């Protein structure tokens, strides 16, 4: 299935490693007459933002970002971005194991389980698991009898996990993102390319 407004072309990995950023939330805060605060979340989850300019260290990388920007038509098309600090189901960004994240409980009928990652009590849907990285277990025992359906952000088992069985998964993943602006500012100096801030923002697919 083709996702409208999305190009499945990863952002240059070497530049992504130098990105600075993280999650953003949107909270309304109203102070009452007594001085107490009433706080209300406007978003159901975080959206992330990064500045990737520090990852551009030479002319070749600036040229690569320029080409990538043009191919995406500025902020028109989203793409997979490898967040250097949050791209693995495992704590610390280490290699995934099949028991990293509990993604459901079998009922003997259900075969499709959405990939998610938990941060304390908060669950984040994973939209772009990397193909070939997903490992799955049923009650702690790894199985190969599943397929990744990336367009549904889910794993689908060949046969339903038995009732009461814990279904878990480990994976690497990218975050869907787009350029924050429709313009780039690049300058060629004596020491190579000079690049002001270039923002990327997370999007929902």
Key phrases:
DUF2460, 8% helix, mainly beta, 19 strands, Elongation Factor Tu (Ef-tu), domain 3, 4-stranded antiparallel beta sheet, 205 residues, single chain, 6-stranded antiparallel beta sheet, 2 domains
What report would you give on this structure?
This protein is mainly beta and about 200 residues long. The protein folds into 2 domains: about 120 residues, Elongation Factor Tu (Ef-tu), domain 3 (Beta Barrel); about 80 residues, no CATH class. Helix content is about 10%, strand content about 40%. The protein has 2 helices and 19 strands. Strands 1, 4, 5, 10, 16 and 19 form a 6-stranded antiparallel sheet that branches. The model has no long low-confidence stretch (mean pLDDT about 90).
List low-pLDDT spans: none
Quaternary structure annotation: single chain
The fold-level CATH name of the largest domain is Elongation Factor Tu (Ef-tu), domain 3
Radius of gyration: 20 Å
**How many strands, what sense, and barrel or not for the largest sheet?**
6 strands, antiparallel
* CATH top level label of the largest domain: Mainly Beta
Tell me roughly what share of residues is in helical segments: under 10%
- Gross morphology: globular
Tally of individual domains: 2
**CATH architecture descriptor text of the largest domain:** Beta Barrel
Number of helices: 2
- The computed structural class is mainly beta
Q: Count every beta strand, where a strand is a DSSP E run of 2 or more residues.
A: 19
Distance between the termini: 12 Å
Strand content: 35-45%
Mean pLDDT: 92
């Amino acid at each position: 299935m083709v996702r409208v407004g999305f190009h499945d072309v990863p952002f240059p990995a070497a530049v992504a490693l130098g990105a600075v950023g993280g999650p953003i939330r949107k909270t309304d805060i109203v102070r009452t007459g007594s001085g107490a605060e009433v706080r209300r979340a406007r978003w159901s989850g975080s959206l992330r933002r990064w500045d990737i300019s520090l990852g551009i260290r030479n002319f070749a990388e600036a040229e690569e970002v320029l080409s990538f920007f043009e191919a995406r038509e500025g902020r028109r098309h989203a793409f997979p971005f490898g967040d250097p600090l949050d791209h693995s189901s495992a704590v610390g960004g280490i290699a995934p194991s099949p028991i990293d994240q509990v993604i459901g409980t079998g009922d003997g009928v259900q075969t499709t389980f959405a990939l998610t990652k938990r941060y304390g009590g908060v669950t984040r849907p994973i939209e772009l698991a990397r193909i070939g990285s997903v490992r799955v277990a049923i009650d702690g025992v790894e199985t190969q009898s599943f397929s990744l359906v990336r367009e549904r952000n889910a794993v689908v088992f060949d046969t339903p996990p038995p009732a009461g069985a814990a279904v878990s998964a480990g994976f690497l993943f990218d975050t869907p993102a787009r350029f924050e602006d429709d313009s780039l500012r690049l300058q060629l100096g004596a020491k190579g390319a000079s690049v002001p801030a270039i923002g990327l923002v997370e999007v929902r697919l």
